[in-house]
Structure formats: C-alpha cells, structure tokens
Amino acid sequence: MRDLINTPASDLTPHALASKAVEVGNRFKAKTKMITKEVLEKQFPMVHAVGQASVNAPAVVDMEWGSSKNPSVTLIGKGVTFDTGGLDVKPPSNMFLMKKDMGGAAHALALAQLIMEMDLSIHLRLILPCAENSIGSKAYRPSDVLTSRKGFTVEVSDTDAEGRLLLADALTAATEKPADYTIDFATLTGAARVAVGTEIAAYFSDDEGVSEKIKQHGDAENDAVWALPLWKGYEDQLPSSTADLKSCPSGGYGGAITAALFLKKFLVEKTKWVHFDVMGWNTRVRPGRPIGGEAMGLRAMYAFFKNLKA
C-alpha cells in the first residue's frame, strides 16, 4: 500500500494501478476483470467523464474471491492516480502530493490482499475505479450534467470534487445485489482533515453497531479512527436546479458530511455501509511510520473482518 501511494503518477497510471490489482487477484485465483473503453463508458459513465481528458485512459477493476456461503464484503477504493483539480485547477501547493489521491484504492487493494492471504471466511468483492483527473480539450466542465450508473443526473459543481463521482458509480455497482458489508476508502475531502487532522481516519457508517465495533478494533490495534455523523439535516444542500443532485454544495462547512450524504444516495440494495475519508499520508516521521504513504483504518477493518461471525 505504501509503495503504491509513494509511486509517482508518471509510473502509476490508471492502467498500471488496475493491472496491479489484477496481478494480486490472479495470485489468489480470484475472478478478476478489467473494464475499459466503451464498456467502461457505458457501465461507469461518471468514471469515464472524470478520466476522459487524460492520455492515460480510465479503468475499473472488479474482483471476486471466496465462497458465496460466507458473509459478503465489498471493498471500494478511489483510484485517482493524479488530481490536477481538472478545470477547477488546484494551486501548486495543493497539487504536489496528488500522486496520493489513489490512496483509497491502495487501502482497498491492500485490505483485499490481506483478507485473501489470511484466507478469512469471507465472500470478497473488490471494485477499484481508476482515473486521472487531467486538464484538456475533453475535460468535463463545471456545470456539466452527468448521468450516473444509477440513473441519477449529477450537476458538476466543482471538477476538483471528482472522487465522489468515481465512488458513486462504484457504490451502485457494488450494491445492485444485496451485500452484508460495503466499505469504501478515499482521500476525499480537506474538510475531514480539518475535522480530525492528518493522523486520524475519519469514517461514516449507517449502522451504529458496526461503527462502534470499528472504533473498538481501532483502539485495540492502535489504528486511530473516528466516526463523523451522517447528519440528515444537511441533505437539503444536495439537490440541484438542473439535475437530481449537485456534486458538492457551495461553501466549506461540513464538507466531509455532505460528501458522505452524496455517496449514500447511490446505494441500491440494503447493506451495512462504511465510508472512510483518509489522509493516506504521513506528514512527519513517527516510529514505524515514515513520511509518505500510510495505512489509515486498514488494520481496524482487518480486525473487524477477522472477528466477523457468519
């Protein structure tokens, strides 16, 4: 996971990231497919929209492993291999570390690898939407209206809020059939960093029992996690005058919460859902934690799944 996050975007393109996931899947004899080109545009239209301006084409990996008799777990990771901000371009100071914007995909892939390596009694699915958010003549624009996999139309409020578009299509794909647990990881919002800093993994869950167990496992594993509220009172900030939803509300207040509420709209069948909004990067040296890519919430979730009862 650290190696993937630390790899420069010139080497870790969307296809390279997806290929790494396929390599891991093949190692454990998982059923793995990489979705690209016209099929991706049809099945994951918002992933295609985000990645269409880059010479490095987007891709989605869909992997399945384990017996269907076991509890079903789907892991999803935001795989933006570099984020310029798109046409709402980031300032240089905010762009330098954007090779780490695929940190969610690195978390999900590393957790999937660990689950398979330790042969947990889980029916595992992994979905990684991979894209580069670039600037070019084909770049999607602020005020564009996109049609999601679920059929909802989404007005693009800010092209720098691209990660939630990838996750939205992936969450729909993940929950078109019932699943016991659906977990997504993403380096999604600066608001989460403002709320809990850079060394705590913020997370949201629509199940209080699951949320409490994650916190207990995080404490036991010395893996700092903290639940933020899915406050329904902010849902009235999501509707758009020209589409079903807007990708993000104006203003910075509660940005991590409104992002999570946006994502929740794209769940289909019933599932226990957890959304991690993480930094994925150490800004200072600590014992066992060098500066660079860092797992956040991964060990807590592994302990959760290791102790999962059928």
Helix content: 25-40%
Which CATH class is shown? Alpha Beta
CATH topology: Aminopeptidase
What does the main sheet amount to?
Answer: 9 strands, mixed
Number of domains: 1
Terminal CA distance: 28 Å
Our estimate of the beta-strand percent is 15-25%
Strands, total number: 14
CATH architecture: 3-Layer(aba) Sandwich
Report on this structure.
There is one protein chain. By secondary structure, this protein is of the alpha/beta class. It has a single domain (2-306), classed as Zn peptidases (Aminopeptidase, 3-Layer(aba) Sandwich), CATH 3.40.630. 33% of the residues lie in helices and 21% in strands. It has 11 helices and 14 strands. It has helices at 2-6, 14-27, 37-43, 45-51, 92-95, 103-117, 163-174, 190-196, 208-220, 255-264, 298-306, and strands at 31-35, 59-65, 72-77, 79-83, 123-133, 145-147, 153-155, 181-186, 201-205, 225-227, 245-246, 272-277, 281-282, 292-293. Strands 1, 2, 3, 4, 5, 8, 9, 10 and 12 form a 9-stranded mixed β-sheet that branches. A 3-stranded mixed β-sheet has the order 6-7-11, covered by helices on one side. Strand 9, helix 9 (208-220) and strand 10 (225-227) form a beta-alpha-beta unit. The longest helix has 15 residues, at 103-117. The mean pLDDT is 97.
